[in-house]
Design goal:
CATH architecture: 4-Layer Sandwich
CATH topology: Metallo-beta-lactamase, Chain A
Low-confidence stretches: 1-11
Radius of gyration: 20 Å
Order of helices and strands: EEEEHEEEEEHEHEHEEE
Shape: globular
Number of helices: 4
Structural class: alpha/beta
Length: 247
């Protein structure tokens, strides 16, 4: 049999990138996961104003600019640990930055300021190298609590934080001596009392505990778009913003 004309055809499945949204046209504030890390999926976020300005907070193993250009107008880090600060990424953009110190940034759409905190105890000092960062945008007040390891917030921190609508908060982190058993994370978030909690450091086993304490968790794939008018009427609602990006 002459097989010279036989044709073998193979089809490969091509996996397409799933990238963060760089141009926000939702008309609302957009909150997105962004890290490429497979270990720390939920420490890094892009916060976008309704008019399209982007801010990056706690960049961790960030996608290269050639893959996705986020075009941030500011970059902020709560502390210098590599699961919250990507040094190479910080060098990529010459924009205003708050890097684990007390500071303020004003852009067209954002008012950003930081508050000294402590990573592992109650010793809060101006030069601790650990801060909480607050973002005011489109009527929302958003706080990234970083790896705060205090037993509770100080009175001064509570006053400086004010009424927070959305808080990124850790609940289990051995480096901050924060566990479900010692309940440090619960005490802090209940002092803060935001409308929405977006958990950062936690395990799968943390999820049912959060649901017992704060009710059913809502999940969002890669991003949450929200306006002031759409905030829950009650406090302490847990929203998981998943990280299913493909770079």
């Amino acid at each position: 049999m002459d097989k010279s004309n036989d044709t073998v055809t193979s089809t490969e499945n091509v996996v397409k990138n799933v990238l963060p949204i760089t141009d926000n046209n939702t008309g609302k504030v957009l909150i997105q996961t962004v890290s490429t890390s497979k270990t720390y999926l939920y420490t890094s976020y892009i916060i976008s104003s309704s008019k399209g300005q982007n801010v990056v907070v706690d960049p961790t193993e960030m996608p290269q600019k050639s893959i996705v250009d986020i075009k941030p107008v500011a970059i902020c880090s709560t502390h210098a640990h590599p699961d919250h600060t990507d040094i190479d990424y910080l060098k990529t953009y010459q924009v205003p930055k708050i890097l684990y110190e007390k500071g303020k940034i004003y852009t067209r759409d954002f008012r950003i300021y930081s508050i000294p905190s402590s990573h592992s105890d109650d010793n809060v000092t101006e030069d601790s190298g650990n801060v909480i960062i607050v973002f005011e945008v489109d009527g929302l007040r958003i706080a990234h609590m970083g790896d705060i390891g205090q037993n509770s917030l100080t009175r001064e921190q509570v006053l400086q934080l004010g009424n927070i609508d959305i808080a990124f908060m850790q609940f289990e982190n051995s480096y901050s001596d924060m566990t479900l058993e010692n309940e440090k994370g619960f005490r802090i978030i209940e002092q803060l009392n935001p409308r929405i909690i977006i958990p950062t450091h936690y395990f799968d086993s943390t999820i049912p505990v959060l649901e017992i304490k704060y009710g059913q968790i809502k999940e969002y794939n890669n991003y949450l778009s929200i306006s002031k008018e759409e905030l829950p009427s009650t406090k302490l609602n847990v929203f998981r913003v998943l990280n299913n990006h493909i770079y």
